[in-house]
Amino acid sequence: MSTGSPVWVPKEIDAERPNAARVYDYLLGGACNFRADREFAEKLLENNPEIAGAVRHNRAFLGRAVRFCVDQGIRQFLDLGSGVPTVGNVHEIAQSRAPGCRVVYVDHEPVAVAHSQRLLEHNRDADALLADLLDVDTVLGAEPVRRLIDFARPVAVIMTAVLHFVPDSARPHATVARYVAEMAAGSFLVLSHGVRGEQEQVRRGYRMYDQSGTPAGGRAREEIHAFMTGTEVLEPGVVWTTQWRPEFNPRARVEPAWIYAAVGRKA
Ligand SMILES: C[S@@+](CC[C@H](N)C(=O)[O-])C[C@H]1O[C@@H](n2cnc3c(N)ncnc32)[C@H](O)[C@@H]1O
Q1: Is 232 helix (H, G, I), strand (E, B) or coil?
Q2: For residue range 186-203, what is the model confidence (pLDDT) as tens digits?
Q3: DSSP states of 71-129 as a string?
Q4: Which of 104, 163, 195, 235 has the smallest number of Cβ neighbours within 10 A?
């Protein structure tokens, strides 16, 4: 796509600045991105070629976690920081395993939400909302959330690869705690988060994000574990995405996948 504005581009978009949602889309092989996003992603890959695998492993973890939740009886999903629709969207995975699963996507990036809404036009059990996940009252009070998600019943709240875009100053742990407080017993929290690596290439990668429209910063494993407060972290704990209940060869990859993953159940 060129940086000229195709019809699907919401007016408020600054196509000249790389944006996390569209960079991630490009890294996953999607077409919903601008030149600035692609150039930025290529620089990220130059700095650390393993990023390409890391985003795919994150996406694969999301798929396994959604299937796991469906198998545990969950029929409603709130996906916060859902991104541009791509391979293996939550509603596709959940509804193919259990028709009628209800899903609400939330993102603060207008292109991601416009695409999600278009994709879901004829899906009465799923919708997308343009909102900042940090504004918990707005998210929980929004029409699609109230229509599709019943917080009195178990729900899966998903925050994958999003909280590293939220700085400590915005109090992300308190925000997650508020969602957990709203969740009924038997609900699940599905989370993944970029690591704060000591390696220079990891630090350089985050410094590059600082120059983008969407700064990012990894966190230590213990800080990521702290997001799960209020839930019982299920086996195998807070682990690399590749290590979270792999479906094929459990020993295939154990080296760092750059992103930690965890699923917790609220008692
Ligand atoms: C790397 S993508 C992850 C997409 C998807 N969750 C996944 O794991 O495949 C991060 C997404 O989080 C969104 N995001 C970042 N901060 C957000 C916030 N405060 N509120 C809502 N969305 C946010 C970005 O716009 C982007 O689409």
Answers
A1: strand
A2: 999 999 999 997 888 889
A3: HTT--EEEEET--S--TT-HHHHHHHHSTT-EEEEEES-HHHHHHHHHHTTT-TTEEEE
A4: 235
Ligand 1, atom 14, residue with closest C-alpha: 81
Cis check: omega of the bond before 236, within 30 degrees of 0: yes
End-to-end CA, the chain:
47
Q: Whose CA is nearest to atom 23 of ligand 1?
A: 81
Instruction: For residue 19, give the ligand 1 atom closest to its CA.
Output: 25
Domains of the chain are 50-265 (3.40.50.150)
Q: What is the tens place of the pLDDT at every residue in 127-141?
A: 999 999 999 999 999
Nearest CA among 37, 16, 15 for reference residue 208: 37
**Which range among 78-82, 196-200, 224-228, 230-234 shows the weakest confidence by mean pLDDT?**
196-200
d(CA 258, CA 44): 13
Q: Is the pLDDT of residue 8 over 90?
A: no
Q: How far is the CA of 13 from the centre of ligand 1 (A)?
A: 16
Residues in contact with ligand 1 (CB, 6 Å cut-off): 20-21, 24, 58-59, 62, 81-83, 106-109, 112, 132-134, 160-162, 165-166
**Tokens 């009628």, residue located:** 100
